[in-house]
Design brief:
Elements: H1 2-24, E1 31-35, E2 40-41, E3 45-52, E4 58-67, E5 70-78, H2 86-89, E6 95-102, E7 112-122, H3 126-129, E8 133-142
Parallel strand pairs: 2-8
Antiparallel strand pairs: 1-3, 3-6, 4-5, 4-7, 7-8
């Protein structure tokens, strides 16, 4: 009788513990969809981001504009962390839609090639609680000068 009770008690304790740890250590990175109307940027262009993490929820979003050795942050956003009972209380922030103005003149960048870097992490406990990372790079051309006319 004692063995059955102890075995039942272990099952009652271990089953939820294994399930929570499996949930919190999930290995799927967030999904990132970036929409830029054109590859050639001038002031007034906006970058639309759709970001989804169906499992543990979003942790951080970092969007940078990089040209040569110059790096400018366009957006840095941190979401509230979930608690241990997140599987039972819902995903902290499962998705977001962001519209980011890309103002090249304000950041002091010159005409030429550049890269928009997007990094998104989720709330997973993988990597010593650093989460899973999705990274996307978009090659662009900064073009603020009007075309020269030849007469």
């Amino acid at each position: 009788m004692k063995k059955i009770f102890l075995l039942g008690l272990c099952a009652v304790i271990l089953a939820p513990l294994v399930w929570v740890l499996t949930y919190r250590f999930e290995g799927s990175p967030p999904e990132v969809t970036a929409d830029l109307p054109t590859r050639f940027l001038k002031d007034g262009v906006t970058l639309s981001l759709d970001i989804i993490d169906h499992k543990t929820g979003l942790r951080n979003i970092h969007v940078r504009l990089v040209q040569n050795d110059i790096t400018k942050t366009l957006l840095k956003k941190t979401y509230p962390t979930g608690d241990l009972l997140a599987p039972f209380s819902g995903i902290p922030q499962g998705g977001d839609r962001l519209v980011i103005p890309v103002e090249t003149g304000r950041h002091g960048l010159s005409d030429g090639e550049a890269v928009i870097q997007i990094q998104v992490t989720d709330q997973s406990w993988r990597g010593w609680n650093h989460g899973n990372m999705a990274e996307e790079k978009i090659s662009i051309v900064i073009d603020t000068q009007p075309p020269a006319s030849r007469c």
